[in-house]
Amino acid sequence: MDRMDGNEGAAAGGWRGARADLAGGLGRAFMWTSLGWLDVRQRYSGSVLGSLWLTANMVLMVGCLTLIFAVPLGSRPGPYAAYVTIGLVLWSFIQTTAAEAPAAFVNAAEPLRQCVLPASLHVFRLLWRNLIVLAHSAVLVPIVLLIFGIRPAASAWTAAPAFLLLVLALFFAVLLLALLGARFRDVSQIVTNGLQLLFFATPVFWLPAALPHGRLWLLRPNPLFAFLDIVRAPLLGGAPAAASWPIAAGTTLALAVAASAAYAAWRQRIVYWI
Amino acid sequence: MARLRLDGVSVVFPLYHASARSMRRFALQGAFGRRIALDSRHPSVTALSEVSLSLSDGDRLALVGPNGAGKTTLLRTAAGIFPPASGRVTRIGRTTPLLGIGTGVNLGATGLENIFLIGMHLDIPPARLKAAVDEIVAWTGLGPFIGAPLRTYSAGMIVRLAFAVSTAFPPDILLMDEWVGLGDAGFRIKAYERMAAFVNGARIVLLASHHREMLEAWCNRALLLDEGRVAADGPLAPILDRAMPREAGP
What we know:
The structure holds two protein chains of two kinds.
Chain A: E1 2-3, H1 14-27, H2 29-43, H3 52-69, H4 77-100, H5 109-114, H6 121-138, H7 140-147, H8 159-183, H9 187-201, H10 223-235, H11 244-266, H12 270-273
Helix pairs in contact in A: 1-11, 2-6, 3-4, 3-6, 4-6, 4-7, 4-8, 4-9, 6-8, 8-10, 8-11, 10-11
Chain B: E1 3-14, H1 22-32, E2 36-37, E3 44-56, E4 60-64, H2 71-79, E5 86-92, E6 95-98, H3 111-121, H4 126-140, H5 155-166, E7 173-177, H6 185-201, E8 204-208, H7 212-218, E9 221-226, E10 229-234, H8 236-243
Parallel strand pairs in B: 4-8, 4-9, 6-7, 7-8
Antiparallel strand pairs in B: 1-3, 1-5, 2-3, 9-10
Helix pairs in contact in B: 3-4, 3-5, 4-5
């Protein structure tokens, strides 16, 4: 359909069009990094602490949770603080990313209707914005580990690929949710409510050991625990549960297949939905 | 060589939940008349039906027709923004739709940053943008204001900036919606010159407008749309006469 217009193949439907759109979006890194930065800057413009509020908020949360829960949950304050810091940093990244996802295309209605640009740009922008926000609280992780003298395991490096896997899974999740959210405006509410429940159902601030004996299987169907586990455990000097890596990888693959198929099928409808 | 072809292109807008809202239904019925199908299970509006046109280098097409005839939809479809329900769109050449002035402007960012923001939304590569920044800044005449956030600008200054960026990079195929209210009189003269260079730099131009003088100045062909169909396609003057009869002058 399209030739030589710098947006090759993007006007085509199906898999070819979806692939061209994703590649075109990724290739315009200049645009989504600029827009992502601008989003963060704008959110905190005019405030004294600026984006350091993100860091301050995390310090307060970790402090409160440690004061209240460390002893009742049968842990010492130091290891618990480290555990909960990594847990909360990752959780807030996952939560805000997923909660913003259904509005990714809806909020980009103007550029989507006025410009010839790959729609996936807006997914990259959302993810980039949340990575910047994450960086503000993630600086606390090494600090907390140092303060409480927690020695990461020799396998601590596996946290890096584990985190990349999480980002990849989130990318496909955002793509899928952005499509669904454009068509069905209730998706936003469903995701927000679902995440609220999942926060308590996932060992973010409580330890899996707190579950009654034999109830550990309760955590198995929750892929978010697997992602938390593969990043957090090696940093705290332990090893993730045996099932965590396979579950995280399987979830990523399933999301990739579902999101790609949905994008190939409905990408061209987005502009009619928003 | 640039080319733009539409072969039997139809565009259908789905109306989600339209039947549930009688107010909206009533309003739509008025605006779109019989093109609206509300009683079917999937209510929809046919915005373009069976539109065909073929343009190549040197063609400057005036797109005319009453409000709601489908002019902007046709521009969007030609640009590839609306995938057609049926028919084919073929484009050869870099295409820029200019449907509103300054898509991408951000009031919290500085004038300089906005040059990049607007340029990115026109899909101009960053290297080309960087190379053109000085010329754009000079043309706007904003001086030191270029480093200030856009929220400190007057509406006219924002238009000037957006206009300067939008017209800095002539594409092969230019799809343009009516440009109105371009600042003060002095600016309008200056803008006219820049616009001329911009439009002449494009190989194919589609211009939708209600201003006869503008269309006569820029175009050499016309297409009249009526209720989403091509009512006439051919030489400029007779179609303009039909679409916008001159008022009986003195």
